[in-house]
Structure formats: C-alpha cells, structure tokens
Amino acid sequence: MEFRRSGAHCGYRGRATGTYWAIFGVVLSTLVVPLPEELTLLGAGYLAHQKAVSLPGAYLSALAAVLIGDTVTFLLGRGLLPKFLGSRWGRKIVSPSLRRWAEDLVREHQVRAILLARFLVGLRGPVYLAIGAARPPAWKFIALNSGVAVVEVAIIVGIGYEFGASHELAKEVRWLEITIGVVLVLALVVLPLLMKRYLERRQPA
Asked: Where are the alpha helices (DSSP H) in the chain?
C-alpha cells in the first residue's frame, strides 16, 4: 500500500513538473506566436484552480517566462536593431532623423518608457526593441521591468485562478491594461511635459 501511494505521489509530481514547463513554454512562445500573453497568464491561474499545479508554482513559471521574454527582446533591440536600422533597408523603413528623434525620446524618458512598456498591449515588443536600441543600462531595464512584471503577472494569474481562463476575460484584462497604460502615459509623460511648458512660459524673458 505504501509503495502504491509513493508511486502515485511521484506520478503527480512528474505531471505537475511537466505542466510547469508547459506554462513556461506557452507564455514564452507569445514572443513569436500570435497568442495574447494575457490569455496564457489567465490559463496558468486556471490550471492552479483546477489543482493541476500549485498557484505559486504557476505564478513563478509564468513570471520566469515573461521576464526572460522581455529581456531577450530588450537585448535584441540593443544588439541587432541598431545594425539593421543602419543598413540600407533599415534607413528606408525608418529615416535617420526619425530614428534619432525616437532614441532621444526614449533616452530622455528612460524610466517612464520602461515602466509603461509592460502595459502597452500590442506594442510591448516594438517598445522593448526601441528601449534596447536607445541602450539604457541593462540593470536599470531589468530591475524596473521586473518590478512591474512581478505585480502585473500576479494580478492576471490571480484573476485566472478566481474566474477561469477565456478569450472574453482576456479581452477584458487587455482593456484594463490599455486603460492603465493610457493613465500612466498621461501621468508620467503628458502631464510633466505640459507642466514644463507652462513653467517655461511663466518665466520672465
């Protein structure tokens, strides 16, 4: 009897380990597969609700994939994008003046750009590439992006655990992220720029 119980326990652990790797792989695959990241995170929480895996394990598997994916995209932008944009084809796609403007903008608002990128649904990849091309310190990107991801992934996985995983729910979560992104853009970028211009106009000539 003890032997059977031990065998069943080992079998469950083996299946759970495989599920953790599956969560990691599916979340990471959203880098190249046109699958909403939100849906994969909701699915991780739903699997924990179904007792296929533990909630902390599902969260950590999804978070690891998100952080690795974000970092890889940033490093690609840091290493390959400048070379591509400097080529003949790259200059045709993005003019040198537009490239300088975008890179100067990211350099001027490094912290804001990194904080906002996680919530720019549909634009995360291009924004991470642009941030990488602007070449901020890698430690700064990893630290700030990780801090935001720890909270965001926890929220979405938790929603999946409580309410399940579905395309409709994923759409609602995406709209929530878009709303957060818009609010952050207004609070961190637009409002400070307006205040700066207002104060400059108030200064005596």
From this structure: 2-29, 37-49, 55-79, 81-86, 88-93, 96-108, 110-117, 124-133, 138-163, 167-185, 191-202
CB 131 within 8 Å of CB 111:
no
- What pTM value is reported for the model? 0.73
User: Which DSSP string do the residues of 50-109 spell out, in sequence order?
Assistant: TTSS-HHHHHHHHHHHHHHHHHHHHHHHHHTHHHHHHSHHHHHHS-HHHHHHHHHHHHHT
Burial class (CB in 10 A: 0-12, 13-18, 19+), 55: middle
- Model pLDDT for residues 81-108, shown as the tens digit of each residue: 777 766 777 666 656 666 666 667 677 7
Q: What is the pLDDT of residues 44-95, one digit of tens each?
A: 999 888 888 899 999 999 999 999 999 998 898 888 777 776 677 766 665 6
